Amino acid sequence: MSLSYILRTKHRPLPYFKALVSLCCPYSTQQDIWQHASSADFLAAAASISSIPKSKGLPEIIVTGRANVGKSTLLNSVLGRKSLLSTSKKAGHTKSLNFYRVGAEPGKLILVDAPGYGARGRPQWGELFDHYVRMRKELRRIYILFNAKHGLNAFDARMLSMLSESLVTARGVQPFTLQAIITKADTVPVDQLEPVIAKIREDIWAAAPLCLPPIVTSTEMSPPFGVDLVRHNIANACSL
Ligand SMILES: Nc1nc2c(ncn2[C@@H]2O[C@H](COP(=O)(O)OP(=O)(O)OP(=O)(O)O)[C@@H](O)[C@H]2O)c(=O)[nH]1
Ligand SMILES: [Mg+2]
């Protein structure tokens, strides 16, 4: 709904005013979603395809990336929580698709944490992730995470090009979008950060030109760096 349409409409019931507010200050309206984030809750864990929970009809986003890249930590930070999601120094910690409702019941959206891929990944985790991505109609955006210190490796490039292929269907429909996130920016010396980010952007572009350019984050910094941008991005992806 455009601003000019709203202003031209004679009868302006409440939804029009709500739309007007969200057009004028989308950021503050989106913040409401995360203000209720403390009521976020764990919904289900699926370690196999048959245990993937039925959709609640809410928009969903999922994170992926090499094991230990910081997927579960980033989702905790997005939710303003310390330990709703279990994290570990040891790679290969998350072993199932874990579903989290955001906002008080019935919720606004669902965040899905996934096991990592790469040398510490397992084939059955890959199958689970692929099945979810292929079948979930509510999936709005995939977030693919890269460690600032490590950059991309062959596993990342393969994952990016595989996801690229599913970004547009044969009929030209885009079922979901793909967004890159750089994690652990605090582990790179500040004077090296610019070239490091430039190289990661270049490598992402080479493997998946349709991937949205990376948001740089650090959950270690105080306040966390880039996490507000991630919240904003998730809300946008879910049309909230
Ligand atoms: N320095 C730093 N460490 C981080 C950051 N984000 C996460 N970590 C650490 O990285 C380690 C792995 O974090 P997780 O969130 O468990 O990583 P994951 O991608 O979920 O890992 P798997 O579940 O094993 O795939 C933990 O020790 C975190 O504390 C960050 O921004 N900076
Ligand atoms: Mg994890």
UniProtKB/TrEMBL annotation:
Pfam families: MMR_HSR1 (PF01926)
PROSITE patterns: G_ENGB
Leader peptide range in chain numbering: none
Domain of life: Eukaryota
CDD domains the UniProt entry points to: YihA_EngB (cd01876)
GO molecular function: GTP binding; metal ion binding
Domain spans labelled EngB-type G: 57-240
Keywords, comma-separated and alphabetical: GTP-binding, Magnesium, Metal-binding, Nucleotide-binding
Cellular component terms per the entry's GO annotation: mitochondrion
PANTHER family, A to Z: GTP-BINDING PROTEIN 8 (PTHR46498:SF1)
Name of the protein described by the UniProt record: EngB-type G domain-containing protein
Lineage, top ranks: Eukaryota, Fungi, Dikarya, Basidiomycota, Agaricomycotina
